[in-house]
Amino acid sequence: MRSLGLPHYKPDYKRLLKPFCLGKCTTAGKMAFERDTSGVSEPVLGIVIAITSSFINGSTFVLQKKGILRARNRGGSYLRDVVWWSGTLSMIVGQIGNFLAYNTAPAVIVTPLGAIGVLFGAVLASLILKEHLNILGKLGCALCCCGSIMLTIHAPKSEAVTSRLELEERLSDPVFLIYASLVVLLLTVLIFWIAPAYGRSNIMVYVAICSLLGSFTVPSSKGLGLVAQDAFGGGSSSRRALALFLGLLGTLAVSILIQFRFINKALECFSSNMFEAIYYVSFTSTVIFASALLFKEWTALTITDSLAMLCGLTTVFVGVVLLRISQEALLTWKEENKKID
Predict the structure, then answer these.
(1) Which residues cross the membrane (predicted)?
(2) How far is Cα of residue 25 from the mean position of the Cα atoms in its chain?
């Protein structure tokens, strides 16, 4: 599962471990510590963390779905089910892992590894939930992962935004403001009109809501890290910075809560492996597009990368269509079996 977004922070392992020396570290011990920490390459460590987080994230939707089914059989709320809470806990742990991975390895390496979670989730859903994918479903799942990886690799890299003033300038850009307004309008229509009528019959309604919210969660989390120092550092501009900080924090909190709610609504109605695959590619595509507009990444997009991203989107589209066909075939088969029984 894709990360919901966290501000970038470079962990200083030497400073974090220094208090444990309690003033008794010898020179030789410090030299040995230097060799130990320098012996592990940060990108390698980030890849290991990313792979581990992908496996944890892959279990999230399966465990939450299992908790929902258990609660439904008992006639109670899934909020009281321990399996559902274990899935929620795995989501939190997975996001912490993503946060560490993005700060110890390049995003272009870490992000594609999220596809491992989708494939692992499909295996778990087959074993735990008995959600078996036919050959079209398996092919669609693989195509979704391959297309998302291609999108991530060829997506334009963000320009460095190192100050609050630069962030404010980007947020006030007319292109981004128009895009944000359209997203808010579309989310309003989806949540209050389309979801109540078609959400339980069309998986793309809930996927669209959760993915569009990524347009706010990721930029907000990135902006919090830039604004925090000015907001709490004092000075004449601290009030303006604090207002921006609270605005970004509120946007992030509301986006995550709404997203979490509709993820569980989707799991109540649809299979976890199908939702996870489609959600992964939709969220990735939406975040890439929103970041390109906010940080003006599209200005650095080459013709080769544009064609590669178009191929990636086409691959994703074919994968989603195959997943939909697979799901419809499965529902038809179940209905026919009920009539025979």
Answers:
(1) 44-63, 83-102, 108-129, 136-156, 176-196, 203-221, 241-263, 275-295, 307-325
(2) 41
